[in-house]
Specification:
It is built from six helices and six strands; from the N terminus they run H-E-E-E-E-H-E-E-H-H-H-H. It is an alpha+beta fold.
Length: 171
Amino acid sequence: RSPSRGLGDVYKRQQQNYRDLLILENDKFYGKSENSTRARDTVYGKEFSKRKMIASHIFPYRSCHRKAEYDPNNGLLLGEDLDYWFDNGSIGIDDEGRFLVKENVDERWKEDLKNTQINKHFLNQDRKKYLKVHRVMHGFETISEDQLRELLLSFNNIETAEVEIILSSFD
């Protein structure tokens, strides 16, 4: 799903607000950057230019239900490179925050991510559900259609009709 023509500015503002919510979450945990143009990423807690930070959707924006589009639990604040691998499904994250890495990932990234883990502070129950959907979507985990339906219905912000639409996109 892409923003409709004429709604581009609204989409950009919503995406900016979404990123700002994730920046605030990271600031609360890692501490605020002394430079207002910089922010800390979710994975490493390292400072990057805010312009280089991506509010990465766990359950992809194009596939998720409406209320998940800007739910902060459906996001991670990532640097551009890590977002690339996460967004295309080459890496996933398990419930303990460990990275799952596919063969197509660059060897240096594989080596770096082998011993990297997202702090459990960021792994609340809602975010874990989104991470499970991401793992299923990208082949890191297999569950039945009934289990997937049950998982989707466990989100308190989803409508039943949306579940069926989402399930059809998994075929």
